[in-house]
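Quick start: load a record and inspect it. Here is Sulfatase-like hydrolase/transferase:
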Amino acid sequence: MLVVEADTKGRPNIIIIVADDMGYGDPSCYGGWINTPNIDSLAAEGLKFTDFHSSGAVCSPTRAGLLTGRYQQRSGIDGVITAAAHRHLGLQPHEITLSKLLKGEGYATAVFGKWHLGYDTKFNPVRHGFDKFIGYVAGNVDYISHVDQTGCSDWWEGDTLVEEPGYVTHLVTKHSVDFIHEHKHRPFLLYVAHEAPHYPYQGPNDKADRTVGGTFPAYGSREDQKEAYREMVEEMDKGIGDIIEALKQNDLDENTLIIFFSDNGGVPIGSNGPLRGYKNELWEGGHRVPAIVRWSGHIKPGTLCDEPVISIDIMPTVLELCSRDIPHGLRLDGVSIAALLLDSKPVAPRTLFWENGNQHAVREGNWKLVLHAKGLDGGIGLYDLSNDLNEQYNKAEQCPELVSELHQKLNEWIQDVHKDRL
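Running the structure step on this input writes:
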């Protein structure tokens, strides 16, 4: 069998680790309440963002944006793909994904854990450029029985439903570590899509709550759910440590770019630190998330970055670092931040947008316009994030021209992303 040797200079391995519903104020390196020594080590040895945003305020949209480098509305994934009502929806196989492009460059590709971009096998990760997929396709499963919220078994190997005993977080880690060992001689893209700390709130020593066809509490049976949440984050952190150790064992540490972030803001059982709002909202707490990038020997250790960055920037950044051109005719909304990571060069000024149902937000510089957010009197809010990070002082009445300008840009964006679908 032909073994493809990794080019240690120009073709780094890529590991993208995504936490599910982890808040800005959860990990200890963000001043949080949960001890996360391995996530902290990534920050100490790499770059920690203070102004990083998910492109969505809920799960499916952010994941679509991550893999396509485009605002998720362009691919029709503008809301949660639920197990109960949306089994016919998903990321269409014709979409051009990061995994397809790197696979075409000789990369081994795998995703372990949460997919949430379609239930039908035509939407399966193996249709989107991933050589290997082990995990679940719903938004969440019981961590022990692997049953989704509708009472269906949901654990897959490729496009085949299988049974595999084990705590979800541990299985995601195990398969990720095995993949690293198996592909140490060729470049790889590894997407580690953790379920933690999304409900049901179950620690590694808990029993299963969900059974096939049964009735059960969606959030789990633990009375001390906040403690379960802590256990879930700590187990995920241990798994990240195992992944880092596997890289070191295979002498891949300096040739592997690790990207860690949360798919959206946290929920009330966790913490968003100083931020207003939670998941499913377009206050900062719904989309400003913890995010860290480490590439030993390339990114200066202990770097703190205050530049506004969004998760759709990951695809163009990875493509540049892997020397893969963007295909002709493909329009990405994200921009490469490679120069920011490697040389601390600022990103050119731009306007960022969010949409979640009838909620909208637009950010330009430090100004953020919010429309129809939960608890927003009058439906329009304008905030200067440079001195009002928790969005308490509405400047809309004082700055009507700025409101009008940002609102116009938002309207143009809405029309653009909903008509421009490949």
